[in-house]
Amino acid sequence: MTDRNKANVEHIRIGIIGPEVIVDKIMKVIETFPSFAPVPLVFRNEDEAPLLAEQICNDVEVLILSDPLSYRKVKEHMMLDMPVLHVPITDAGLYKALFYAQQKDKLNGGISVDTLTEVMVRRTFKDMDIMDIKSIIYDGPVYASTTELASFHENSMISGQSTLALTGVGSVAQELSRREIPNVWLLPSDQDIVVSLERALLSTASRRSKEGQIVVGMINVDDFDRQALKRNNEHEVQKLKLDIHRMVLDYVESLDGYLNHMGGDEYLFFTTRGIFERESGGYKTIPFAKDMNKTHGISLSIGMGFGRTASAAGTSARIAMRKAKEAGGNACFIVREDGTLIGPLEMADPVQEVLSSTDAALIKRAEDAGMTSAYLSKLLNQRARFGKYEYKVHELANLLDITVRSTHRLLLHWMDNGLVEITGLEKVPRGRPRQIFRFTFLE
């Protein structure tokens, strides 16, 4: 790019806040984004992030934080009228940390891990062919304090479950080093930073109109009556209702949204698309659902609807809620304005792989082949949570809650329409081998 062309570029001032090592990485990557004029600020501890954000909030158009914890602290302390994003910690950072630990021969006694989910760790172990490594994954509050995370790693080591701590939080790595506990700081990869910067760029340019798009959400408490029966008296039931309402209200507040209790165990809320996208990590997880499950043992069904009008968004939300219920609850689906389906998002249970958008044409193809919306939702949920594509007839009959005879009939019809194929046979001691059917259209 010539100097003259550079002068014509409309620079977008972007605030970059984080520890020095990550800010330096972002500054190197951002050189490939000529539209950005970075304003970097460095902190030594995540608690300093809100003060730094306050210093530059009037001088930048978008703010990017180095990690989820500092992002959360900024959101808790400030109401910013601009896009605020963070660089996520993904499998890529874990690959690098594990490779380093292997090179240093530090994987012999097991590891303790925070920030990442058990699914991410297990998948990485499988890819690196180190499934024999013991691991203990932090499963406490989503945004735990530095002390809580450091104590988790220390206790894991004292109990003999690990000899190396992997943490995605810089202050935790510092505290572990102070306690003389071997550790590796999980840093974001260049690709993670590129994706975050692309999202920041889009949030200030072509995506600005969608950032403010109204989104309708529906929340339903799964099997509330059964949960109520576990309480000893009506007073405890009423307290449970109040606790649920408070947690839902706090979640909607984190979305800068508006909540309406529809009565019973159903809630309706409104927020904007940009905020929901950021709070869900790009339509991947609902941390609030995990907190609800940990606190009260309750699962939720959530339906999110996008639309060009509030009416269309509400209709999409109702369709998404139906799909969450058809999947058996404890699920969140999104229906976008073009009918595209996203989900299920990660809820209280580990999800092996979050589905990207499922094309509306593919959904129609499945339904034209006699696969009802209920059947499709259940298959999508099993695929996301357990990576399951293959079924024997009896397994599929149990999942769909129909007879084996009906299952055989549907499988033949789906095979004729190219949705399913036979991939193998399972030998049994007596009788004919059992066929294994693979749902190829889900791959």
Task: Provide a brief overview of the structure.
This protein has helices spanning 3-8, 20-29, 49-56, 68-77, 91-103, 118-128, 146-158, 170-178, 190-204, 208-211, 224-229, 234-254, 273-279, 287-296, 310-326, 360-368, 373-386, 393-400, 404-416; strands at residues 12-18, 36-42, 62-65, 84-86, 111-113, 135-137, 164-167, 183-185, 214-221, 258-261, 266-272, 300-306, 331-335, 341-342, 390-391, 420-426, 434-439. The protein is an alpha/beta fold and 443 residues long.
Describe this structure in words.
By secondary structure, this protein is α/β, with parallel strands linked by helices. It has 4 domains: 3-88 and 192-201, Rossmann fold (3-Layer(aba) Sandwich), CATH 3.40.50.10330; 91-185, Rossmann fold; 207-357, Reverse transcriptase/Diguanylate cyclase domain (Alpha-Beta Plaits), CATH 3.30.70.270; 386-442, Orthogonal Bundle (Arc Repressor Mutant, subunit A), CATH 1.10.10. Helix content is 46%, strand content 19%. The protein is built from 19 helices and 17 strands. The strands form 4 sheets. It has a 6-stranded mixed sheet. A 4-stranded parallel sheet has the order 2-1-3-4, sandwiched between helices. The protein has a 4-stranded parallel sheet with strand order 6-5-7-8, with helices on both faces. A hairpin with a 5-residue loop joins β13 and β14. α18 crosses α19 (404-416). The two termini are 41 Å apart. 37% of the residues are buried.
